Amino acid sequence: MDEYHQKYQxxxxxxxxxxxxVKEIGLRQVMSSIGAQVPTxxxxxxxxxxxxxxxxxxxxxxxxxxxxxxPVKLTTIDVTIEHLAGAEGVIQHxxxxxxxxxxxxxxxxxxxxxxxxxxxxxxxLKNSYDALAPGGVAIHVFAEEDFNPPQSxxxxxxxxxxxxNALQMMLTSAGIKYLEVPLRYDxxxxxxxxxxMLIDEQAxxxxx
Length: 208
Known about the structure:
Rossmann fold, globular, 7 strands, alpha/beta
């Protein structure tokens, strides 16, 4: 298991819960901004691209079921899955290769693109669009370092710079419609009930 996943495995349930809170706030902000339609099918088909810890899988299912008011059929893919051993609906797969098992009503990732080599980052976005059902949405969340990196920013080992302008130009050239949704969270720091932190992120939402 690599250092990144070991770090998550060592986190307490309270720390994981803090990250889940940020995810849920962000997803609700996105859905409120875009007015996503509720699928007519009995269940919502959701694909999550990349997952740092298996404790997040059940939370993803809960969040999307709550947002849509329907049962969720959740699939999670990651390029390595040792850290997700024992969780349901997990498939080992690279997001830069056409996605398995579609079409999906929702495809979601949280700061995945920075883990992909720059010359392949657009493929993850395009593959998510291609795997959507009509009316579906692909939600890609980027951290502030991805869309507004400080001058001295150096990506952590195993991550890469993200050229948001280039990605948006490639989406436009490919005829893929997208929306930019700014996200801001004022939440308590993990383990604290008094000290808060401000998080700036941005979602790129693709609509089929």
